[in-house]
Every structure is written in structure tokens, then in C-alpha cells.
Design brief:
Largest sheet: 6 strands, mixed
Strand content: 25-35%
Oligomer: single chain
Mean pLDDT: 86
Low-confidence stretches: 1-6
Helix content: 10-25%
Radius of gyration: 15 Å
Structural class: alpha/beta
Order of helices and strands: EEEHEHEHEHEEEE
Number of strands: 10
Strand order of the largest sheet: 4-1-5-6-7-8
Distance between the termini: 46 Å
Number of helices: 4
Length: 171
């Protein structure tokens, strides 16, 4: 007997950031190559299907509200209800807040890394793997997935010194 369970498809939207190896000094891109989200996902051997759309390739310090509007439009118009957004950590909270306030009826998970996706000891692969498993389980809403923790868009801050995300309100 065939499995009647409908396969969930995930859309991955890429925007750049440390997860893809984007590093800048004074607005000048300093790397000659970037990390491939496609190769990272292929290395995970995921069972669910997904597609990848490259929206921009920026250090998140340079993502603007215009870029966020482009991202929001892409989310609203894509067929999938499960969306992962790779994003730099510097403005991830701001972008998640922008998207969260729109109350889009899809499950949207932001993910990135504190260590470049080009580095052998990067947290990129583990964060991507975690975000992929969580996007399939979470209710519609906007989240940040980092270091095996899910944060709601309206209850998260970046702790730059500790290189982690934290909840704003301790419950």
C-alpha cells in the first residue's frame, strides 16, 4: 500500500551573510569565493524536497528595508508554506521583525551562522539542518533557528559578545 502522506516542499531563500561566507570591511567584499547553500543542503541528505531561490548576496549590515520588501513579496508569492531564509546575523532580528509584523500565514524560519560557511568548524551546517527539521514541525509564524533553539521573531535579541541569540523575556 502506498503512503498517502503528502510530501512537504520547502523553499529556501538565500540572502548572503556569514553562512554563505560574506565578509566585508568598510562595505568592500573581502572574500573571493562564497559557500554554497545548495552544497550544504545536499550534504545533509534531506528526505524532504526543497527548492532554492537566491534573492541577494549581501552582508546583512547592508540589507535595507527595500530588500526586506523584496523578501516579503517573494515569501507571499511562493507556492510553499514552509520557508527557510538564510541571512546574516547582524540584521537578522531586524529582518525577522519586519517579516513577522506582516503576519504572513506561512512558517518562516531564519537561519545563519556566526562562523563563516567557508570554515571547517562553521556552525552553518548544523544550523541549516536544525532549521530544516524545525520548519516542518512549527506552526505558521516567523522564527529564528540557531544553535538548536527556536526563537519567536518578537522575543529575540543577538548577544554579540557571547555569539548567540537569546530570548528577550525570560519565562
Amino acid at each position: 500500500m502506498k503512503n498517502l502522506k503528502t510530501e512537504m516542499r520547502v523553499r529556501v531563500l538565500t540572502t548572503g551573510g556569514t553562512i554563505e561566507g560574506f565578509e566585508y570591511t568598510d562595505e568592500k567584499f573581502k572574500n573571493k569565493r562564497t559557500a554554497s547553500i545548495k552544497e550544504m543542503l545536499e550534504s545533509l541528505g534531506l528526505k524532504s524536497s526543497y527548492s532554492i531561490t537566491k534573492l541577494f548576496a549581501k552582508d546583512s549590515r547592508f540589507i535595507t528595508d527595500r530588500d526586506r520588501t523584496v523578501l516579503a513579496d517573494e515569501i507571499k508569492h511562493c507556492a510553499e508554506d514552509k520557508i527557510i531564509i538564510t541571512h546574516g546575523t547582524e540584521s537578522m532580528v531586524e529582518t525577522a521583525t519586519f517579516i513577522g509584523k506582516l503576519n504572513i500565514k506561512k512558517t518562516i524560519v531564519f537561519v545563519g551562522s556566526f562562523i563563516s560557511g567557508l570554515e571547517a568548524k562553521s556552525d552553518a551546517i548544523s544550523n541549516l539542518s536544525f532549521s530544516f527539521s524545525e520548519v516542518l514541525k512549527l506552526e505558521p509564524g516567523t522564527y529564528i533557528a540557531f544553535h538548536d533553539t527556536i526563537f519567536n521573531w518578537d522575543n529575540v535579541k543577538k548577544n554579540r559578545e557571547a555569539k548567540r541569540f537569546e530570548t528577550l523575556i525570560n519565562n
